[in-house]
Specification:
The complex is a heterodimer of chains A (416) and B (251). With 416 residues, chain A is of the alpha/beta class. Helix content of chain A is 19%, strand content 40%. Chain A contains seven helices and 21 strands. In chain A, α5 packs across α6. Chain A is globular. In chain A, 57% of the residues are buried. The mean pLDDT of chain A is 92. Chain B is an alpha/beta fold and 251 residues long. Chain B has one domain: Rossmann fold. Chain B contains seven helices and ten strands. In chain B, the strands form two sheets. In chain B, strands 6-7-8-3-9-10 form a six-stranded mixed beta sheet, sandwiched between helices. A four-stranded antiparallel beta sheet of chain B has the order 2-1-4-5. In chain B, β7, α6 and β8 form a beta-alpha-beta unit. The chains are: A alpha/beta (416), B alpha/beta (251). At the A-B interface, α5 and α6 of A face α2 and α3 of B.
């Protein structure tokens, strides 16, 4: 980035520092501390984290033994405490500060698919970069023509009370490469409340594929505001899987894929389990801007206790010959909980195909009866139905990763 | 008696559907329940099964000498009652394989036992088919075969079949009939049969392949006639259920 555009980023951010997000509860950022609370030592080995932390990480798909992984990254609060870049020759994994030192060109990828003035959370992230001169978050890149089937694992971990964690991640799949990521977000045992803002910008160069599987497991009073933009060039595939089944205070995210290249394809699959008084507002947006682009948004939501789930999806077709499908199913399990499905289709060109399917309701009595008539008691029947409902087939992952992801889903869904 | 129903009256949604049902089925017997649409055949089935929507306002149901009127469905099934539904619901994310394991008292993490695998094969299900979500996108015939396969996993002492042959082609009716025969101990001499059953059939076509000991005609919430299945079916074929109305009035 030249000097001028750097200045523009910060100017834009400054103007937006009080700008409320378009949707979701407005969070008072000042309630959280952006001072580095404790200096955290670098880890020599990811396996050196404590037993409790290990278990927490495993729940969000991060294996501290790094089995079947092509790289690892761990950020605790604001510090990058562990990076393993040496497992695979095909994939680079670095902290953003290190990567920005190494690659001058990386600046050209900052604040391009997520705007610094989108809202006060992106603005805060940008201004923090300016103030500290440090960019937290990770950089992951697959080299041209490579196909690493093992995933890179990246984790954002909040270890201290009332921390405001920001991260700015950049993921690049170079031409004709394939890249898989598992990202987990979690909080330490003694953390009650905190805030997390993760800005993620992804770029798929022609002929590439990225799968991005994210598991969230926050403490009950954590405010979560991920901001994700994905740019797809010609002949690319992006698959996003999102799993949240543990309580949280509020989460609001609306990752957006820009299918700007011909034959590009974006698929978002999400599993949302609302518990306690969580407010979950998760959507996926695909802009179909090039010939033969495809978009799919599939979500399953289950609300329990007093939770509220806003399940959004937005497909927008701007050129002829694109196709999109949106599927949003919700189960409301308690009288005090709520699911609000908001499927949106927008067509601004003739000759395109977009459809949606949304169904929200209580658990079917007929299904419970069917299972009890096989000797399964009512309670078990209900939980089988809920687990079955949430347990969607995740498509597009390599076998090994598909199995692991299935295990992660099973683990999350078992807790429901 | 294996099953004894006395003076049973049932309401569904506040409306009295069954009025005064008396029915006994002994060990080793197969009975047939006939009757026009809306007579209450399915209601009787689902009341015996104990679905919560079926409110017993009078009478008792005894199974193996035990009063089961107030037991839950799962409890009744665990005592040895089984059912095949005419049009069961599909359940997302619950596979046929998982159900078969539960029904044959296997652990969910175990591999499906060889007996069930062989039975699945006999009922023309491939191994991959067993991983499909139950009834999801199944053809009419697949639904019926899957219902029978699940019953074979359970091997109930008393099995109710709701229209097991509707929507099934002739070739598969024989296949189904043979497995229904297994569930009703038809492969054993009459005197040594233990398992019993109750079949709902509209057309009686299945009775060409599965022999029954007794038939009952259910009309307007009451059993209007009981007797030899062949003779009763013959009468219905000749005179329709109207004939039964007249006959009942004679009584």
């Amino acid at each position: 980035m030249d000097v001028l555009s750097v200045r523009n980023v910060y100017e834009d951010a400054e103007r937006a520092i009080n700008k409320k997000a378009a949707i979701g509860a407005d969070i008072t950022i000042e309630n959280f501390t952006d001072e580095a609370v404790n200096a955290i030592d670098l880890l020599d080995d990811l396996d050196d984290v404590g037993k409790k932390t290990k278990d927490t990480l495993l729940k969000v798909g991060v294996d501290t033994e790094e089995k079947n992984r092509s790289g690892s990254f761990l950020q605790v609060d604001q510090s990058n405490v562990f990076t393993n870049n040496s497992i695979s020759d095909s994939v680079e994994v670095m902290g953003m500060s290190v990567a920005l030192d190494k690659y001058k060109w990386l600046e050209d990828y900052l604040w391009k698919v997520v705007k610094p003035d989108a809202d006060k959370y992106t603005a805060k992230t940008a201004l923090r970069e300016k103030e500290t001169g440090e960019t937290s978050g990770y950089f992951v890149r697959s080299l041209p023509g490579t196909k690493e089937v093992m995933p890179v694992q990246a984790c954002m971990f909040i270890g201290d009370e009332a921390v405001m964690q920001t991260a700015h991640n950049v993921i690049i799949a170079e031409e004709n490469s394939e890249l898989h990521l598992i990202t987990g977000c979690a909080t330490g045992d003694d953390v009650v409340s905190a805030m997390h803002v993760g800005v993620s910008e992804m770029y798929l160069k022609p002929g590439s594929k990225i799968t991005f599987t994210m598991v969230h497991n926050w403490a009950e009073q954590v405010e979560v505001r991920p901001r994700t933009g994905v740019k797809l060039m010609d002949d690319t595939t992006y698959i996003n899987n999102y799993i949240l089944t543990s309580p949280v205070s509020t989460i609001q995210s609306y990752p957006t894929a820009y299918c700007d290249g011909k034959n590009s394809r974006a698929i978002f699959q999400s599993i949302q389990g609302g518990k306690k008084d969580s407010i979950i507002d998760v959507g996926s947006r695909v802009l179909l801007n090039a010939p033969n682009a495809r978009g799919e948004v599939i979500s399953r939501a289950v609300s329990q206790d007093e939770s509220k789930i806003y399940s959004r999806g937005h497909l927008s077709g701007t050129v002829p010959g694109v196709k999109g499908h949106l599927e949003c199913h919700g189960l409301v399990l308690s009288d005090d909980s709520m699911i609000y499905a908001v499927p949106e289709l927008e067509a601004s060109s003739a000759n395109l195909e977009m459809s949606h399917e949304a169904a929200v309701g209580k658990i079917s009595e007929e299904e419970i009866n069917y299972l009890t008539s096989r000797g399964i008691n009512e309670e078990d029947a209900e939980s089988m139905i809920v687990r079955g409902f949430l347990n969607m087939d995740i498509t597009g992952l390599p076998d090994e990763l598909a199995q692991q992801t299935q295990m992660m889903i099973d683990m999350s869904v078992d807790g429901m | 008696m294996l099953l004894e129903i006395e003076n049973l009256a049932v309401e569904v949604g506040g409306k009295r559907v069954l009025k005064d049902i008396n029915l006994s089925i002994a060990e080793g017997e197969t009975h047939v329940l006939l009757g026009p649409n809306g007579a209450g055949k399915s209601t009787l089935f689902l009341t015996i099964l104990g679905f919560p929507q079926y409110n017993v306002v009078n009478g008792t149901i005894k199974f193996k000498g035990q009063d089961i009127t107030d037991l839950t469905t799962a409890e009744r099934v665990q005592l040895g009652i089984g059912v095949s539904f005419q049009s069961p619901p599909s359940i997302r994310g619950v596979s046929v394989r998982d159900l078969l394991k539960i029904e044959s008292h296997q652990d969910i993490d175990e591999e499906l036992n060889p007996r069930m695998k062989q039975l699945a094969d006999q009922l023309k299900f491939s191994d991959e088919f067993l991983d499909r979500d139950v009834n999801f996108g199944f053809s009419g015939g697949e639904v019926k075969r899957s219902e029978i396969l699940q019953l074979l996993a359970q091997m109930p002492d008393f099995t109710m079949f709701d229209e097991p042959d509707s929507g099934v082609d002739i070739e598969n009716v024989e296949l189904l009939a043979s497995e229904i025969g297994t569930l009703l101990d038809k492969d054993k001499p009459q005197g040594s049969r233990i398992r019993s059953g109750l079949l709902i059939t509209h057309l009686g076509y299945i009775l060409n392949f599965v022999s029954a000991d007794k038939a009952h005609v259910l009309m307007d919430g009451k059993i209007s006639c009981s007797g030899n299945p062949t003779e009763i079916l013959e009468d219905i074929r000749k005179n329709g259920f109207n004939g039964c109305v007249e006959c009942a009035q004679c009584l």
